[in-house]
Amino acid sequence: MSTVSRAADRIESVPFLTRDDASLLLVLPGLFVFSAFMLFPVLYLLGISFTNAEPANLFAGEGVVAVLTFGDALFVGLENYADVLTDGQFWNSFGVTWLFVATSVTLKIGASLAIALIVTSELVRGKRVLRSLIIFPMGLPPIFTITVWRGIFSSAEFGLMNQLLTAFGASSVAWLSGRWTAFVAYNVTEAWLAYPFMVIITVSALQDVPEELHEAAVVDGAGFLARFAHITLPSIKRPVLFASILTSAASFQQFLIPFVFNKGGPARANELIVVYGYREALSFQQYGRGAAISIIALVFIGAFMWLNVKKGKLADGVND
User: Fold this and answer.
1) Locate the ABC transmembrane type-1 domain: which residues (predicted)?
2) Are 165 and 142 in contact (CB under 8 A)?
3) Euclidean distance between CA atoms 277 and 60, whole angstroms
4) SS3 75
5) What confidence score (pLDDT) does residue 320 get?
6) What is the Cα–Cα distance from 231 to 185, expressed in whole angstroms?
7) Distances in Å between the alpha carbon of 61 and those of 43, 46, 209, 271?
8) Can you give the pTM of this predicted structure?
9) Which of 284, 255, 298, 279 is nearest to 53 (CA)?
């Protein structure tokens, strides 16, 4: 008998408790931890979004209770949401964020699929070494990696990208001073951070493709591209879609890359929505407005993930 079963039997032996009640008691510690670290912060953020909270009034009272009850901040209803939704900078950040999600995820899928096909090819030797090297970036702190890439895209002549351009006879580029050159730098860095995860999922999916299907297609005269389009892609579609949804959410919440590179510049042109919320809350000290931005972002990313899971039929069989 397992430990969980023995615990359930002991709880069930208590008067007035059924086995269903015992099962509920067993999950209460997990629910408490989830509520403390996940649910409560979201609810607190939602509460602040309906107030005019700022440092002067949110921390006006004494003790933890005063902060938890929003101090002297006043209830303003939907005023923060109205201000945000009528702010041109919000819509710029909103559009740039979704563009960043679309371009970075496309780049990540393409790069990871190409790498996965290489490391699973029968023509490649030393696959284990290659896979170890591929996942190596996952062991590095993101802030370290992003700082290195900032140096690579430095606008100075000694920046690695500018040295490569000069070596091929092109002129140097002020990467982080232009809107779209900085946006390209964001995408490349984001792809570098996320490709190990995508490659792991894609390689696992490729290994599950039945070899008999490829052999039968070869006998029928199908080339590599035909086998890739009609056998490989349909077989790995669901795992890759699942990984894409997860990495899309990560791209939507990206903060470090634009903030470390140029703080969403130039002139806030590339300010992703999380950086926008951070600036409103901490730089301008408008906590209520910053909370409203975060809640709006949470709603959109939640709807995006739900829609993709629904349309991609990734939840099929969960209730079986």
Assistant:
1) 94-308
2) no
3) 23
4) strand
5) 47
6) 34
7) 20, 20, 62, 34
8) 0.84
9) 284
* Sign of the CA dihedral running 288, 291, 297, 303: negative
* Helix/strand/coil percentages in the chain, nearest 5: 70, 0, 30
> CB within 8 A of 20, min separation 6: which ones?
none
- Sign of CA pseudo-dihedral 156, 161, 167, 169: negative
Class of domain 87-285: mainly alpha
Question: What's the rounded Cα separation, in Å, for the pair 303 and 98?
Answer: 13
What confidence category does residue 318 fall into, taking pLDDT thresholds of 50, 70 and 90? very low
pLDDT digits (tens, 9 = 90+) for 60-119: 767 666 667 787 888 999 999 999 999 999 999 999 999 999 999 999 999 999 988 888
User: 114-121, long-range: CB within 8 Å, 24+ apart, which pairs?
Assistant: 115/195, 115/199, 116/199, 116/202, 116/203, 116/206, 117/206, 119/199, 119/203, 120/203, 120/206, 120/207
Q: Which residue has the tokens 């792991």?
A: 200
Q: Whole-angstrom Cα distance, residue 278 to residue 93?
A: 12
Three-state SS at 51: strand
Measuring CA to CA, how many Å separate 144 from each of 137, 190, 231?
Answer: 10, 13, 40
Locate 236 and state its tokens.
């790995």
Per residue in 199-242, pLDDT tens?
989 888 888 888 888 778 888 777 878 888 888 888 888 888 88
Tokens of 146: 């992003």
pLDDT at position 15:
52
Residue type, 155: S
Peptide bond into 258 cis (omega under 30): no
Residue whose entry in the numeric block shows the structure tokens 């001073």: 177
Length of the chain: 320
226 to 123, 214, 218, 221: CA distances (angstroms): 19, 10, 10, 9
Average pLDDT over residues 57-61: 76
Q: Which residues pair with 51 in a beta bridge?
A: 75
